[in-house]
Amino acid sequence: MRKLYNFVAFQAGWFAGVLGAAHGREVLGTYAITAVIAIHLWIARTRRGEALFLASTLPIGFLINTILHVSGAVVGVSWLSNAWLSPAWLLALWPLFGTLFNESMSWMAGRHRVAAAFGVIGAPLSYWGGARAGAIQLHENTALWIGLVALTWGLAMPLLLEFQVRWTPVPRS
To answer: pTM here?
Structure first.
């Protein structure tokens, strides 16, 4: 039941963030994402470790969002044309995504190649969905944005798994 709740809560947060940005209500989307994360931490098995893990997703997300934006591969519609900082709603999606690692995506623990493949395939689909909703703009060169999103996320996913193990180790039975 926890895994199902986690998956549904993540989807609700993702849609709130994306649709909020698409309709000029980035702040509302960011608040909704923050609420989902807060509830997740409140019911987490190890709150401190989970909080540290979710916090560790932020520098990775900031770096990837910056790379994607500066390259022109992915541009958030709420970004100023010359700004390189990630909008809050887009950055908030990283710890929201992190909420999945110890619940819905716990099956991935220790499977670095699977995690990398998940990032290479899943991330471009997620960005495409965000673009279809109107929250982000993708570079007109499809190979560029898919390639850069796949590369950055293919590298990020195994790193996120390492942070998961560091901050929220699974007890041996």
So the answer is: 0.91
**Structural domain includes residue 172:** no
138 - beta bridge partners? 74
Q: What are phi and psi of 136, to 5 degrees?
A: -135, 165
Which residue reads 């109107």 in tokens? 134
Q: End-to-end CA distance of the chain, in Å?
A: 21
| pLDDT averages per 10-residue partition of the chain, 173 residues | 95 96 92 97 94 96 91 72 73 97 93 97 95 92 94 97 87 45
Contact 111, 97 (CB under 8 A): no
137 beta partners: 75
Provide the domain limits for residue 115: 2-167
Q: How far apart, in whole angstroms, are the C-alpha atoms of residue 25 and residue 8?
A: 22
Q: What interhelical angle do 26-43 and 88-98 show, nearest 10?
A: 20
Instruction: Name the token pair of 46.
Output: 């190890």
